[in-house]
Specification:
It is a single chain. The chain is α+β, with helices and mostly antiparallel strands. It has one domain: Nuclear Transport Factor 2, Chain: A (Roll), CATH 3.10.450. About 35% of the residues lie in helices and about 25% in strands. The chain has six helices and ten strands. The chain has a six-stranded mixed β-sheet. Strands 1-2 form a two-stranded antiparallel ribbon. Pfam families: SnoaL_2 (PF12680). This is Nuclear transport factor 2 family protein.
Amino acid sequence: MPRSSFQIFLKRHGGLFRSNGRQSTKRKGTIMTADSNDAERIYRLWDEALGNKDLEAALALYAPDASIESPLVQHLMQTKDGIVRGRDALREFIARVFRTNPPQRRRFKQGFFSDGRVLTWEYPRQSPDGDQMDLVEVMEIDDGLIQRHRVYWGWYALNVLKES
């Protein structure tokens, strides 16, 4: 099977690592750096906050001047652009997200990638329990907190948004 350009990049830049720091040839895991503990901690705590719909736990992960960029911002906040900035706006947006999660918004994923500063993972459309909203989350981390959070939507997720 031919290697993807991403796999070639990883091989040239030190390989792919699991969260335990051991090298892996598998496609799951993290690229470890000195700050990878922050990325792994945020990955785990964000998922817990999302699953529990815990607004305070979610907000504690963000810097005071952090931003979230997503099509959902326009939809829920009725704004022209898709960005919320600052803790107060984040509070209002995340609270609305937790109140309005459709059943297709599940949390199946298969690991994450991080260079210690940028944390990325995918919620694929196909999951063991059927289709879910297909999203890619990208978080820029600074001093142990999320500074910038971007959510990219796939076609299935956009259709769910249009129907709501």
